[in-house]
Design goal:
This protein is α+β, with helices and mostly antiparallel strands and about 500 residues long. It is built from 16 helices and eleven strands. The protein starts with about 50 loop residues before the first helix and ends with a strand.
């Protein structure tokens, strides 16, 4: 998901924009839903008081920021968060988050800790830049994305899904367990490889990129709580040698894939070729080779990781709730029968799409959208000093007691048109908000809806130890440990 979270992705996530996935107003797209939704609250950390939450996070030592959130973080409009040298302010009120994320005076740039963590991989790309450099990149990238229509990307999605289904079918026949997390990461990485570079993940270069990305995501996402508390603002934080080596390998492989498109006579119809062809409308300049690697790194990182995160949770919840899985299957049968689930059919899968949307509400792919105050200012009634960390947390906003009815309950039907009056404007931001909203929201939604429809039509999925599933805030909202499961082929 690029923030332009997205996601994201939203803070991290370039998928693609394109035709709307929402049916026209008044269009009857699915059978009438049942009158009740499953009374299910998926796993979440139990919030503690501020000091207890700090001690828990420090004792765990795993850098999980979810465990650092006190109970008050889910109740306040805006408030200082914990204890730190630079000060941290959590902002939940939609009218205040809009001010920060639209950033009209450009005093809330990307957070320096996040920029420092990602810059070795993505340089000064659209994901981490601000001000004039960001505006230049956005002017160039937007037309490149509009060139890639969802109808064309749909073919890449279906081809990658064919391979994923074959792997799961083999595991089902042998009784072998599989990791939901890894399966979704491999699938979305395969889709983004095919969409960006016109190559599947089943190549040596693509597999190396995926493996290096997986290592980078695990290592760079680890937040040292003591640094968060005691370090001053804007302090350089060196990355560990293995993280830098992963970045070097990824960028080298990205360069190899890029050079195949730059070669004389090369002809591709994909995102990479569209970004190569992008020109600055004011100067006519193209991206340099290093800038292209920066941007393509963002597309790969955000284009699969955020969607994989949301799909992992959607798969787990639907597997845990037979009513949800059955409603997905009934909707697919009503819309597509037993035949191919085509592009137009996916647009009509209202309930399946809402399962994905509700999963993103409870487990927003980008847990936090961090900003930093470039100068002293005020937010609400609070004075904010230069260097203060401003935390826009979709995790707390999506679970805020003043903004949602039964905020911790899984209820896809809350997104039905007849319940729109319950929605507080600005309280749902899985793809971010403002000028940096994720450019790939439509791509991600199409992709996830198709994946859920096809996999649950063909398989029963059974998590092996659901009671041990626990979310943590890493680069995205992920399970603390892999969710292992077994798949069973469904009759017919």
């Amino acid at each position: 998901m690029t923030e332009s979270r997205a996601t994201h992705l939203t803070t991290a996530c370039p998928h693609l924009e394109g035709a709307s996935l929402c049916p026209a107003a008044g269009e009857n797209t699915a059978p009438a839903p049942p009158t009740s939704a499953p009374d299910y609250e998926p796993p979440r950390p139990r919030p503690l008081g501020p000091l207890s939450a700090l001690l828990r996070a420090a004792w765990r030592g795993d850098g999980d920021l979810l465990s650092l959130l006190p109970k008050e973080a889910y109740e306040v409009d805006v408030s200082p968060l914990g204890y730190s040298r630079r000060s941290i302010l959590i902002v939940n009120a939609p009218e205040l988050t809009r001010t920060v994320l639209t950033n009209p005076t450009e005093i809330y740039p990307k957070n320096d800790l996040m920029v420092g963590a990602l810059r070795p991989l993505v340089g000064d790309s659209i994901f981490v830049s601000d001000g004039a450099p960001w505006r230049r990149q956005r002017r160039m990238i937007d037309p490149a994305f509009s060139h890639i229509r969802l109808t064309r990307a749909f073919g890449a999605m279906t081809a990658a899904l064919d391979d994923c289904e074959a792997r799961l079918a083999s595991a089902a026949r042998s009784g072998e367990s599989f990791s939901i997390d890894l399966a979704m990461s491999q699938l979305t990485a395969d889709i983004i490889c095919r969409t960006v570079f016109s190559t599947s993940l089943d190549t040596d270069v693509a597999r190396d990129v995926f493996t290096s990305f997986a290592h980078f995501e695990r290592r760079v996402a680890h937040v040292e709580i003591r640094r968060l508390i005691f370090d001053r603002a804007f302090k350089d934080i060196p990355q560990k040698a293995d993280v830098l080596e992963s970045c070097r390998l990824i960028r080298a492989h990205m360069g190899t894939l890029l050079d195949s498109h730059l070669a004389a006579g090369a002809s591709f119809d994909d995102i990479c070729s569209a970004v190569i062809a992008a020109r600055d409308a004011e100067t006519g300049a193209a991206f340099t080779r290093e800038e292209l690697i920066d941007q393509l790194g963002v597309f790969f990182l955000a284009g699969h990781e955020t969607t994989a995160s949301a799909l992992t949770w959607a798969m787990f919840i639907a597997a845990e709730c037979p009513e949800v899985a059955q409603r997905i299957r009934a909707e697919v049968e009503d819309v597509a029968g037993t035949g191919e689930i085509g592009f137009e059919a996916v647009k009509r899968l209202t309930y399946t799409r809402n399962v994905f949307k509700e999963s993103m509400r409870l487990y927003p792919p980008i847990t936090f959208i961090p900003r930093v105050a470039a100068e002293a200012t005020t937010i609400g009634r609070y004075k904010v000093k230069r260097g203060a960390m401003i935390m826009i947390a979709p995790w707390t906003i999506h679970r805020h007691e003043k903004l949602w009815r039964d905020p911790h309950r899984f209820d896809p039907d809350r997104f039905l048109p007849e319940r729109e009056h319950e929605m507080v404007p600005g309280a749902y931001l899985p793809f971010g908000f403002g000028p940096r909203i994720c450019v790939g929201a439509a791509f991600a939604t199409l992709e996830a809806t198709l994946i859920l429809a096809r996999l649950f039509r063909r398989f029963d999925v059974h998590p092996l130890e659901p009671g041990k599933v626990e979310p943590v805030a890493r680069l995205t909202t992920r399970p603390k440990h892999e969710i292992m499961a077994q798949a069973r082929l469904r009759a017919g």
